[in-house]
Known about the structure:
Strand content: under 5%
Protein name: DUF1127 domain-containing protein
Number of helices: 3
InterPro entries: YjiS-like
Order of helices and strands: HHH
Pfam families: YjiS-like
Helix content: over 70%
Domain YjiS-like: 6-41
Structural class: mainly alpha
Amino acid sequence: MFLSIILARFRQWRRSRETVRQLSALSDRELLDIGISRYDIAQVARRGR
């Protein structure tokens, strides 16, 4: 059970990092089009939305 929690957290962290990477690659205009600012990227990635 403990190992499954660790693996789930690790997967969540990887998804978050991938989301940050992808959103960071967008231009400011593209980010504005989807309704977020560059400042919000980390928070959006953590929420998983």
